[in-house]
Design goal:
alpha/beta; Rossmann fold
């Protein structure tokens, strides 16, 4: 059994059952929680914000998502620090740069404020736990679809942001799959630096100068896939493979039309929803210590990792995902 499965099935499951089974605590009017993200305007984080607000409505607490509108690790760090001025009860954060945020996270933990990472981890920090996708497994899922569509051989360009730990883990998953298929080669890894325009321009360059040398494009974050698809569509190119990430409307449209072979769906709504509920539980049922190494404690009161799951979306099931998103978008928050 992997460490991920152990974390979720043992400690994580027990923690979530405890959340479900406890009687509803009285909430303090001073309770205030923050989710600190990066690239706040993209659909992925709007879904997370909806999950945050759903949980806040149910718990009757204040919760706010903050963060820069673009990929900017230093601006995110400043937003994290700004949150401290409001005396937060707890903080969720998706570190754009794990090492940059490590000292800040440790400092907040030292002040007695619980911090949970979501979507992207800072594993060497003192954060209490990580909730989100098993990113290595997401890479494995994508790698298997890539192999299937390339039929065992081809050259691949990868679009990513190496500074983010979640994207590194996804790449590791792809590489593990491709290690068993030596005729498929990653010939270039492109750092898009949070700017999908870089993926657009690189794809345009490939179309104009390297079209016969590149067979597939792998996009490890949410923005690049639709821009790659847009370029190939404009140029009328149908014989290239794109494996994308996440399920915003344009990405699903390209999957439905067959230009994106597959995308890997995450659950940002679920991450934020349960992340806030965990922080609230930690406020009402305080740990003996926030700085204890709970990850190595055999009687830990916390899971180390809670895997919210991922799924492959392709033409066989994309209609179901589009329908589900439409239903949930129309559903008002429940209190």
């Amino acid at each position: 059994m992997s460490r991920w499965t152990q974390a979720l099935s043992l400690s994580g499951l027990g923690f979530l059952l405890a959340l479900a089974g406890c009687s509803k605590p009285e909430h303090d009017v001073e309770e205030r929680y923050f989710l600190v993200c990066s690239n706040a305007k993209i659909p992925y984080w709007q879904a997370a914000q909806a999950g945050l607000h759903r949980a806040a409505s149910q718990l009757k607490v204040r919760a706010e998502m903050i963060g820069p509108d673009t990929y900017d690790p230093k601006a995110q760090q400043q937003e994290f620090r700004n949150a401290l001025r409001h005396k937060p009860t707890g903080i969720l954060i998706s570190p754009a740069d794990a090492e940059l945020l490590k000292a800040d996270i440790d400092g907040v933990i030292g002040q007695g404020i619980p911090v949970i990472t979501m979507d992207s981890d800072s594993p060497t920090s003192q954060r209490l736990l990580y909730i989100g996708t098993n990113n290595y497994q997401a890479g494995v899922m994508g790698g298997k679809k890539l192999v299937e569509h390339l039929q065992g051989k081809g050259n691949v360009i990868v679009f990513t942001m190496p500074g983010q730990s979640n994207l590194r883990e996804r790449l590791n998953g792809y590489q593990a799959v491709l290690a068993e298929h030596p005729k498929i080669k990653i010939v270039e890894i492109v750092d898009i630096k949070g700017d999908p325009g870089i993926a657009f321009d690189k794809t345009m360059d490939v179309v104009e100068h390297q079209l016969d040398k590149i067979d597939a494009f792998v996009c490890l974050e949410a923005n690049a896939g639709k821009d790659v698809a847009e370029v190939l569509n404009r140029k009328g190119i149908k014989n290239k493979v794109i494996v994308a990430m996440d399920t915003d409307e344009p990405t699903l449209k390209w999957v439905q039309q067959g230009l994106i072979a597959a995308t890997i769906a995450q659950k940002p709504f679920t991450m934020a929803y349960y992340g806030l509920k965990m922080l609230d539980d930690l406020y009402h049922h305080k740990l003996p210590s926030l700085t204890r190494n709970w990850a190595q404690d055999p009687f830990s009161l916390l899971p180390t990792i809670v895997d919210t799951g991922a799924a492959v979306v392709d033409r066989s099931n994309v209609g179901d995902f589009i329908k589900a998103q439409g239903t949930n978008a129309a559903e008002p928050p429940k209190s």
